[in-house]
């Protein structure tokens, strides 16, 4: 990057820079991939570009159905302009099918359908490994109010309904996903909006017909073809046309 910009925050997959106007930030998508609380690391050429496009696509569509998000516009291949929010220190996980830590924790066979969608909360803290928490913890430690939890849960279920339909329409099953929310302040009042990203880094996506994994589990489990799988998701969503040629390859 040519200009010197003030870095506000650097996470495992993204960097936030000061935005052009007050109340805005620039979100930069890195090619870094991490798993198991950053114990496993790699650089996957082109991942940031694909995730930027998929997240833009999803956030734009969620905005169109009335879900408030931090997304303003995509600036270039790797960056988007977003609203600055006060992040609620929770990872919100919505699960439709047993997989990952839920299977391990409750002894459920991976791929078995859940009786209904389940929402779980984890406290955002890498040093602690993002532990699972209950609503009781959230309100006791003032991470979010009861009203905010209600808003978050209602929004998460709407997002889940929409994404299940959107991915289902292109032959992809939405197994589960992780999202984050933030507060935006208007005078003395704050409201909750969707923040962070929605991409194959933060969703479990399986090919509906073959059950092939098209998400970050390919990296976690050393299955290979990570970028090809992410590109396949983008291709099916119809957003692959503007991709740089280096990552045009779909799954063959």
Automatic annotation (TrEMBL):
Listed InterPro entries: SAICAR_synt/ADE2_N, SAICAR_synt_PurC, SAICAR_synth, SAICAR_synthetase, SAICAR_synthetase_CS
EC number per UniProt: 6.3.2.6
Family membership noted in the UniProt record: Belongs to the SAICAR synthetase family.
Protein name: Phosphoribosylaminoimidazole-succinocarboxamide synthase
SUPFAM superfamilies named among the record's database cross-references: SAICAR synthase-like
Keywords from the UniProt entry: ATP-binding, Ligase, Nucleotide-binding, Purine biosynthesis
Ligase found in the keyword field: yes
One Pfam family this sequence matches: SAICAR_synt
Pathway assigned to this chain's UniProt record: Purine metabolism; IMP biosynthesis via de novo pathway; 5-amino-1-(5-phospho-D-ribosyl)imidazole-4-carboxamide from 5-amino-1-(5-phospho-D-ribosyl)imidazole-4-carboxylate: step 1/2
GO MF annotation, one: phosphoribosylaminoimidazolesuccinocarboxamide synthase activity
Reaction catalyzed: 5-amino-1-(5-phospho-D-ribosyl)imidazole-4-carboxylate + L-aspartate + ATP = (2S)-2-[5-amino-1-(5-phospho-beta-D-ribosyl)imidazole-4-carboxamido]succinate + ADP + phosphate + 2 H(+)
Organism for this UniProt entry: Caulobacter ginsengisoli
Domain SAICAR synthetase/ADE2 N-terminal residue range list: 7-236
Gene3D superfamilies assigned to the protein according to its UniProt record, in alphabetical order: ATP-grasp fold, B domain, Phosphorylase Kinase, domain 1
